[in-house]
From TrEMBL:
Keywords, ordered alphabetically: Carboxypeptidase, Disulfide bond, Glycoprotein, Hydrolase, Protease, Signal, Zymogen
Gene3D superfamilies tied to this protein: 3.40.50.12670, alpha/beta hydrolase (3.40.50.1820)
SUPFAM superfamilies: alpha/beta-Hydrolases (SSF53474)
Residues spanning the signal sequence: 1-24
Protein name: Carboxypeptidase
Annotated InterPro entries: AB_hydrolase_fold (IPR029058), Peptidase_S10 (IPR001563), Ser_caboxypep_his_AS (IPR033124), Ser_caboxypep_ser_AS (IPR018202)
Gene coding for it: LOC109723101
Keyword Transcription regulation: no
PANTHER family cross-referenced by the UniProt entry: SERINE CARBOXYPEPTIDASE-LIKE 20, SERINE PROTEASE FAMILY S10 SERINE CARBOXYPEPTIDASE
GO molecular function ontology, one term from the record: acyltransferase activity, transferring groups other than amino-acyl groups
Pfam hit, one: Peptidase_S10
GO biological process: proteolysis; secondary metabolic process
Family affiliation: Belongs to the peptidase S10 family.
Length: 494
């Protein structure tokens, strides 16, 4: 009897040991502290590298924030920033990460971190991934890997996901979504397609993929390229006379000028938009210290102008400076994608990312998040010119059609003041899929206020605009972004 009891006890302990080793995040990836933050994390944080190519030493960096609500039940969401070549720490630091970052006051000093009341980790487990290799903190030991494109990026990111879920098997049963913004309008559907194909072909582990979400995402050369001029006219940025002239000369299509008169008039449109912050036309653009002084509290300008771009974030978000997106009127074209320096800018136009740059290039921070030091992989940059990127996946319309036809849930959202990827283009291509409208265009509300408009289609497709928001919606409309994110993940009507 005693021998049987002992044997049973040993068997139970062995089983518990096995289960513990199977269903446990890697302790070596656990983040125990972060320079600049004093206090306790509201949930566990993990970070590190996942090798997607052993032979080349191609490693993708991730930062994983466990849900603050119910980690075992809440969805797992992958977040991707765009570019191509931009780090997903953009989303982590400036948009919906667990912290708000307060400048240290002196250039290069370590920022102070405060808990973000609108973090998307309030309702989901969220993975921030730097992809492809060469972006952010991701790297390869073989420089040939920095020549890449849409299809290779999607393949590597799929490999990352399979390996990541092997490391974190306790999250395999959770609903899984892929999300991102801007050029992630390409990353998200191409990766979603790879995930679905892997599921159908029996790739292990089996991901519980439910759908995807794209914010202000590029999608199609024609739809996106033809959206800017009508958007500018509708927003009162160009005169009705100029709009009628350019419409007539260009035959209503603007992304690829058909004659010299069309080209001349489009150049005039460009000139009239030149001093705008095209990522959010409500925000002032800071051209120089002199202009910043004009916009100070002592300014004689009306207070309504000085307050443009203010946010309900409890701490200031990054400053905006003069600049423009590329290429105007056609955010995505087939072939090689030019880098920012090739387009005449040493950094991403309209952004000042001093806080993120000083934090992620601090060696104590890198050590705390298990990232390689600068001496091995170089400095962190918001958007790198290290990669040579090819847009080789074509239009995203076929990807969206394939995925939604299989009833994977899709949310396409836009800030209604984004001139970089205007909502008018996104609205047009979602309608072009040909699905029946099952929820007619209507306002959606937060705290009894209209905060945007939405339209629902058959096959679980939803289009959404956020009132007064620009290209990076959660950055300047964090409460609204958390609201629609929470409702959509839960399947609740907006």
């Amino acid at each position: 009897m005693e021998a049987s009891t002992a044997t049973l006890t040993i068997s139970v302990l062995l089983l518990l040991s096995i289960l513990s080793s199977i269903a446990a995040a890697p302790e070596s990836a656990l983040i125990t502290h972060l320079p600049g933050f004093d206090g306790s994390f509201p949930s566990k944080h993990y970070s590190g590298y996942t090798t997607v190519d052993e032979e080349h030493g191609r490693n993708l960096f991730y930062y994983f924030v466990v849900s603050e609500r119910n980690p075992a039940q809440d969805p797992v969401v992958l977040w991707l920033n765009g570019g191509p070549g931009c780090s997903s720490f953009d989303g982590f630091v400036y948009e919906h990460g667990p912290f708000n970052f307060e400048s240290g006051g002196v250039p290069g000093s370590l920022p102070k971190l405060h808990l973000n009341p609108y973090s998307w980790s309030k309702v989901s487990n969220i993975i921030y991934l730097d992809s492809p290799a060469g972006v952010g903190l991701s790297y390869s030991n073989n420089s040939s890997d920095y020549a890449t494109g849409d299809l290779k990026t999607a393949s590597d990111s799929h490999t990352f996901l399979l390996k990541w879920f092997e490391q974190y098997p306790e999250f395999l049963a959770n609903p899984f979504y892929i999300s991102g913004e801007s050029y992630a309008g390409v990353y998200v559907p191409t990766l979603s397609y790879e995930v679905v194909k892997g599921i159908q072909e029996g790739a292990k582990p089996t991901l519980n993929f439910k759908g995807y979400m794209v914010g202000n995402g590029v999608s199609d050369t024609v739809f996106d390229g033809d959206a800017l001029v009508p958007f500018a006219h509708g927003m009162g940025l160009i005169s009705n006379d100029l709009f009628q002239e350019v419409y007539s000369a260009c035959n209503g299509s603007y992304w690829n000028p058909v004659n010299n008169n069309c080209l001349v008039l489009l150049s005039k449109v460009d000139w009239e938009l030149d001093n705008l912050n095209i990522y959010d036309i409500l925000e002032p653009c800071f051209h120089s210290p002199e202009v910043r002084e004009v916009l100070s509290e002592d300014s004689r300008l009306p207070s309504s102008f000085r307050k443009l771009g203010e946010t309900d974030r409890p701490l200031p978000v990054r400053k905006r400076m003069f600049g423009r997106a590329w290429p105007l009127r056609a955010p995505v074209r087939d072939g090689r994608v030019p880098t920012w320096p090739e387009l005449g800018s040493s950094s991403v136009p309209c952004t000042d990312d001093e806080v993120a740059t000083s934090w992620l290039n601090n060696e104590a921070v890198r050590s705390a998040i298990h990232a390689q030091p600068r001496s091995l992989i170089g400095a962190w940059e918001l958007c790198t010119n290290k990669i040579d990127f090819d847009h080789d996946a074509g239009s995203m319309i076929k990807y969206h059609k394939n995925l939604t036809a299989q009833d994977y849930r899709a949310l396409i959202y836009s800030g209604d003041h984004d001139l970089c990827v205007p909502f008018t283009g996104s609205e047009a291509w979602t309608r072009s899929l040909g699905y029946a409208i099952i929820d007619a265009w209507r306002p959606w509300y937060l705290n009894d206020q209209v905060v945007g408009y939405t339209q629902g289609y058959d096959h679980n497709l939803t289009f959404l605009t956020i009132k007064g928001a620009g290209h990076t919606v959660p950055e300047y409309k964090p409460s609204e972004a958390l609201a629609f994110y929470t409702r959509w993940l839960a399947g609740t009507k907006l």
